[in-house]
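Team,

Forwarding the record for the chain on the shared tracking sheet. I've put the sequence and predicted structure together so nobody has to dig through attachments.
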Amino acid sequence: MARQVARNSLLSAMASLATTLAAAGSTIIVARILGVERTGVVTLALWLVTIAVTVASLGLPTAMTRYIAESHDGTVQRALARRFLWPTVAAAGVTFAVFASPALALWIEATDVVWAALAGEDRQTRVAIWLVLGAATTAQVLGQYRLGVLRGQQEFRAAAVVTLWAFALQMAATLAGCLTFGTLGALAGYALGAVPAALSCLATRGCALRPSSEIVARVRRFALYAWAGSVMSAFVWARIEIYFLQRFEGFEAVGLFTAGLTLASLATQGPLLLTGALLPHFAKAHASGKVDHLREAYASATRLIAFLVFPAGLGLAAIMPVVMPLVFGEAFRPAVPVASLLVVASAIGAASVVGSHLVNALERSDFVFYCSLCGAMLAVGAGFTLVPVFGLMGAGAARALIQLTMVAAGLWFITRKLGYRAPLRELAKLFLAAGLAALAARLCLILIPGRWALAAAIPAAMITYVIGVRALRALTRTDTDRLRSAVSLLPRPLSLCGRPVLMLIRA
C-alpha cells in the first residue's frame, strides 16, 4: 500500500510539476520580453481567468477525486464521471458566452477594472483579448474536471501525460506569442496550454449505469461547499492583492508582486506536488473505516511535506537578493523584500495542505467554506487599508498574515473537532533546522559577493539542514522508511543521490 501511494504521489508530482513550471516559465518569459508593466497587465488578465474558472468549475473536480476514489467498481466510477460531465460542459459554455458578450466588455470599460490596462491596444485587439480569455477559461474548466476524474480513478500516469503535453505547448506558444503579438500573444499562449487537458474530456467513456440517488446527493452537497469554499479562497490564495495594487499603485507594482509570487510558488509547489495522491488515498481509508491508519498517515505526510518545503521556502528567502534579478532581471530587484516575505509565509502554509486533503476526505468541505469566507473578508479589508498605505509590502504582509491565520484555524479544527493530532513538535524542529540552513546561506551571500555566492550558499544550506534534522530528531524511523520507498522509485541517478541523505537523517 505504501509503495503504491508513493508511486501515485510521484506520478501526480510529475503532472503538477509540469503545470507549475508552465505557469512560472510563462511568467518569466513575459517578464523578460515584455517588461515589468506588461507583466502586471498579463497577470491581472489571468487573475480574471482564475476567478472565472473557480466559479465555473462548480466544485466538481475535487468532488470527482473524492467520490470516484471511494468506489472500487470501475463501472460506478465511469457512471459518476459521466453524470457530472454535462453540468461542467454547460458551465464552461456559459462562461465563454459571458466573456464574448459585448455587455461584459462595456461594463469592464465603464468600471475601469482591466480596460485601462489595454488602453494602448486598438479595439480589435481588445476584443480578441476578451475572446482569448474566454477560451482559456473554458478550456481550464473542462481540463480540471478531467484531471479530477483521472486522479479519482488512480490514473496518475494518464494525468501526467496530459499535463506534460500542456507544459510543452504553453511554453512554446507563450514564447512565440510574446515575440509576435505582445500581450495578446502571451495570453493566447496561456490559453493553448489548457487545450490538451480539455480535449482529454473526449475520452470520458459512456456508461449505461446511473449512479444511485444517495451518492449523487452526497456529491452535490460536497461540491456545493467545495465550490463556495474555493470561490472564497480565491480572495486569499488567487492573488486578490493584484487588484488592489493596480488600483492604488499601478501595473508596475502588480508586475513586481507577481514576480515574488512566482518564486514563492516555485519554492513551495515542488514538495506539494507529492500530495496529489493523498485525497483519494485518505478517502479510501475513511470509507474502509481505517481510522488508525488515517491518523498515522496524516501525521507522517505532514512531517514529510514540512521536511521538504520548510528548507525550500526559507532557503530561497535567504538567497532572494541574488535569485530575483538573476531570474527576472535587474528591473525586478525592488521585489526582493516582498518576495522574501511571501516565500516564508508560503512555506509555512504549504505544510497545511495535507490537513486540507484530510478535511475533504472526511467530507467536511463545509469547514473549508466557512474558513475561506472569513479569509475573504479579511483579504478585502486589508486591500482597502494596508495596500493604500504601505503599497507593495502592505500587499505582501496582508497575504502572509491572512494565510497564516487560516493555517492556524485549520490546525485548530483538525485537532479539536476532528480529533487528529498535528505533529506540532516535529514541525517546530523542522522549522528550526530550516532556519539554521537559511542563515548559513545568507552568510555565504555576505561573505562571497556576486552570483557565484549561490555555488556556496546552496550546498552550505543543504549540509546545515541535514545536520540539523539529524541532531533534532525531527523525523521518525517510519518517515525515513517512507522517504526511502519514494526515493527508490526515482530514476537511478536521483535515487543514488538521495540515499546518502536518508542515511544521515535516519533517526
